[in-house]
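Design job #97: recover the sequence.
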């Protein structure tokens, strides 16, 4: 890897090489499940000879670049390892569900990573992790202070400062002017919230995580062919849009979760759109939380929307392709399950909606027991914990989980902060992501494979 992380070209080159070589287990390139809005294929690869398929995918969110990195290494591992028995099972790999978002993020950071040694790349990733957490603390600690002084809603403060550096004295004066308190009372709350820990100098920056890079903007996106030109032009339109004086910070290209339509594929489902419309009704201008407090949401952009048209829901082509692929397998009784890898958190989303809210209790119980079994096998190797039952559908994962069994979302890195934090500790965090998750998949595949073998014997 030239840059320390995988790029779109790396992924295609490594996969082409595998498809064209005689590996122990043959890698077959299939017809793409879909094409992105700018025409990039959503590629599908198969390994194994079984009738039943298990799907392994990643790259739903552009900025979560650790997922495709892992899946490429998984494909290489399964292709070259003779110990793995794939007679009774076929693995379907979709390494990059959202090539557009992935290209936006990786092309934006490439120029700053190209001449680094492995150690320098690790260091910059670690610095990124520190700064990412500082951005979170900026939001958490200041909110804590304002709430302790009596603000239930802290928007008045953030409406002034969310896109600005904060001077320590300005914050002090803001509090004195806003709340009916003495300096001594403020100092007490200030100390309890540990506000001074935010200020290594008198000024606290907005978007600390961006400062490990130079000046990032969409001009860096390549124009190799028509697809790239279209992508660049669509990103330019979004980034140049002015919403009553608000513009996305140009560096927020590294936070890009969405495709070029500015749609978050994980929230691209009707139930989420309805939830978001209710939020928009209450507050017309919405921003992200924590480190994304400087980014508007529910408009096309890095944080994105649930549907291109808010009045008329549509699935994005990347999701339509995935849903059709999964449903086709399920309809033909060839489907065993699917794991979708996301960036950070070290958790597994496996449960369908709470049973008492389920439309079909028997189906929900069946789905739950299968998912629980898969998640337990997975967790026994990785140590990732299972996320509790959701009360409502908050993402495409929840939606799919209520339709078919065996659909798990695995959040990878214990070091939070896409795109770079997973790389901030090569021998600890990064290696364990790759090794543990490949081991966990092997264990799960072995289990499923032996079930299939016994069925065939019967
Ligand atoms: Zn994600």
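Job complete. Output follows.
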């Amino acid at each position: 890897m030239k840059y320390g992380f995988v790029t779109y070209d790396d992924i295609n080159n490594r996969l082409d090489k595998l498809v064209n070589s005689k590996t122990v287990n043959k890698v077959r390139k299939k017809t793409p499940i879909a094409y992105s809005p700018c025409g990039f294929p959503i590629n599908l690869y198969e390994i194994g000879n079984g009738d039943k398929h298990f799907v392994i995918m990643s790259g739903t969110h552009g900025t979560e670049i650790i997922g495709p990195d892992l899946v490429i290494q998984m494909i290489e591992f399964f292709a070259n390892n003779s110990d793995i028995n794939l007679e009774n099972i076929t693995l379907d790999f979709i390494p990059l569900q959202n090539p557009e978002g992935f290209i936006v993020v990786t092309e934006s950071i490439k120029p700053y990573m190209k001449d680094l040694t492995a150690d320098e790349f690790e260091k910059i990733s670690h610095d990124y992790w520190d700064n990412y957490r500082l951005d979170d603390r900026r939001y958490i600690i200041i909110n804590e202070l304002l709430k302790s002084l009596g603000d239930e809603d802290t928007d008045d403060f953030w409406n002034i400062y969310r896109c600005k550096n904060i001077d320590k004295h300005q914050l002090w004066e803001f509090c004195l002017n806003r709340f009916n308190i003495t300096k001594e009372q403020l100092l007490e709350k200030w100390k309890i919230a540990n506000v001074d820990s935010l200020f290594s100098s008198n000024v606290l920056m907005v978007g600390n995580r961006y400062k490990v890079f130079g000046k990032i903007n969409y001009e860096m996106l390549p124009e190799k062919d028509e697809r790239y030109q279209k992508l660049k032009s669509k990103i330019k339109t979004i980034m140049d849009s002015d919403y009553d004086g608000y513009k996305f910070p140009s560096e927020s290209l590294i936070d890009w979760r969405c495709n070029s339509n500015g749609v978050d594929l994980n929230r691209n489902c009707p139930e989420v759109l309805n939830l978001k419309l209710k939020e928009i009704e209450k507050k017309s201008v919405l921003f992200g939380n924590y480190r994304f407090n400087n980014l508007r949401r529910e408009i096309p952009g890095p944080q994105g929307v649930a549907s291109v048209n808010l009045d008329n829901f549509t699935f994005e082509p990347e999701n339509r392709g995935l849903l059709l692929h999964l449903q086709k397998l399920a309809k033909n009784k060839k489907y065993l399950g699917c794991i979708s890898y996301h960036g950070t958190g070290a958790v597994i989303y496996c449960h369908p909606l709470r049973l008492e809210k389920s439309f079909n209790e028997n189906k929900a119980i069946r789905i739950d027991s299968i998912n629980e079994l898969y998640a337990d096998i997975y967790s026994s190797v990785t140590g990732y914990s299972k996320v509790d039952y959701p009360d409502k559908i908050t993402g495409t994962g929840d939606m799919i989980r209520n339709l078919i069994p065996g659909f798990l979302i695995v959040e990878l890195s214990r070091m939070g902060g896409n795109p770079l934090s997973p790389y901030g500790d090569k021998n600890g965090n990064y290696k364990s992501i790759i090794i543990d998750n490949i081991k966990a998949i092997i264990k799960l595949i072995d289990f499923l494979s032996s079930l299939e073998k016994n069925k065939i014997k019967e």
